[in-house]
Design a protein that fits this description.
alpha/beta; Aspartate Aminotransferase, domain 1; Aspartate Aminotransferase, domain 2; seven-stranded mixed beta sheet; four-stranded mixed beta sheet; 15 strands; binds pyridoxal-5'-phosphate
Length: about 400
């Protein structure tokens, strides 16, 4: 084998896996055999799932399925090459225009995944001699993007605007880039985007927000967290993923036309990756219209959110203060959270146990995701089960 594996003996893998088992951090996958709204069949048993980021219940929307089928008939199932060779179809071109219009920014660029977007965009914006300022709870792909950029990395404590102000003020870097999740993926809280943008204006920095969990959910017609706050600025680079509320796959980055053109020229994960199949893109165009027109999905989600929070008010575990579809309950230890998840599963409920390194040690949690695909009866079932498990 070639390095780095040449330095790892076969026994090391076994020892490494045993260490994961011992720490309660080994991950495993469950095989999903069928999906029906918020219900998933696993090992022949239907489970009511609170684990999906399909917040609006659009992953099976008939309009999207039909659009994908039509596009497959027209374009085939593969794009054939990178967008800069021949992978950029009329479907891609139209989606980028529609996404830019939807979020109210001049231009948008579609990426195959959110992970690819951030890992490509950050190194295209900053490099050696520059500085990145990153919230301590940012998603892994923002962190990896910053590392790949080879810029100096300053991590500020979660949402600490005063500390960020001092760090930006003290920096002599040529270019400065602030990175933040717009809605934090494991906590569900919303970043103070107006204050962050204000700091960027005062300190001559750019702000990249990752709206993976706000796009489709927050703001008028689901236009996202920037629209939720009503902010706009030439310093804002907006990124959102399309595999969550949009129910399909991929991501996009939007901002000033010249900035987006620069990203097209310089993001290696855009340039050197095969374009997404047109059927994915047409499914997204169909769901984008649903997001824009069906406000009832967001309203229903808001009601479920209130129902859940009211129902869990007396729980011995801490429910984090979140107004989004992500509702985490801090259980603490890894084994304790695994046991809680197993007890819920025994009652036919799938709630993921999130452990380190995804969250800090000692803050393992049940991460409940609500979806417009849930009914009030579904949420009532979850509340009853959680109360029983917490009391056990
Ligand atoms: C899910 C997620 C991503 C990754 O997006 P994918 O399209 O799944 O690769 C990026 N950032 C945040 C905050 C996320 O939650």
């Amino acid at each position: 084998m070639t390095p780095p594996f040449a330095t790892m003996a076969p026994d090391d893998f076994e020892a490494g896996l045993a260490a994961l088992d011992h720490a309660g951090t080994r991950r495993s996958r469950r095989v999903v055999q069928a999906i029906d709204g918020a219900r998933l069949r696993v090992d022949g048993q239907w489970l009511l799932s609170f684990s999906s980021n399909d917040y609006l219940g659009l992953s099976q929307h008939p309009a999207a399925v039909e659009a994908a089928q039509r596009a497959a008939a027209q374009y085939g199932v593969g794009a054939g090459a990178s967008p800069l060779v021949n992978g950029h179809s009329a479907a891609h071109e139209a989606l980028e225009r529609e996404l830019a219009d939807f979020v109210g920014l001049p231009r948008a660029l579609y990426f195959g995944a959110g992970y690819l977007a951030n890992v490509g965009v950050v190194p295209a914006l900053v490099g050696r001699g520059d500085a990145v300022f990153s919230d301590a709870l940012n998603h892994a792909c923002l962190i990896d993007g910053a590392r790949l950029a080879r810029a100096a990395i300053h991590v500020y404590s979660h949402n600490d605007v005063a500390l960020l102000d001092r760090l930006l003020g003290a920096s002599t870097a040529r270019r400065k880039l602030v990175l933040t999740d717009a809605v934090f993926s494991m906590d569900g809280d919303i970043a103070p985007v107006p204050q962050l943008l204000d700091l960027c204006e005062r300190h001559d920095a750019l702000l990249l927000i990752d709206d993976a969990h706000g796009f489709g959910v927050l703001g008028p017609q689901g236009r996202g967290t920037a629209a939720h706050f009503g902010v706009r600025s030439p310093r804002l680079i907006y990124m959102a993923t399309l595999g969550k509320a949009a129910g399909v796959a991929g991501a996009f980055v939007a901002g000033p036309a010249a900035a987006v053109e620069w990203l097209l020229q310089r993001s290696r994960t855009y340039i050197f990756a095969t374009a997404a199949p047109a059927m994915i893109i047409e499914a997204l165009r169909a769901n984008l219209r649903v997001i824009e027109t069906q406000s009832w999905r967001r309203e229903h989600l808001g009601l479920l959110n209130e129902q859940l929070r009211d129902g869990l008010a007396g729980l011995p575990w801490q429910l984090l203060p979140s107004s989004t579809a992500i509702q985490p309950i801090i259980v603490g230890g890894n084994q304790a959270v695994l046991e809680a998840a197993a007890a819920l599963r025994a009652q036919g409920l799938w709630v993921p146990a999130i452990r380190p390194p995804t969250v800090p040690p000692g803050l393992a949690r049940l991460r409940i995701s609500l979806s417009a695909a849930h009914s009030q009866a579904d949420v009532a079932q979850l509340v009853t089960a959680l109360q029983a498990v917490a009391a056990a």
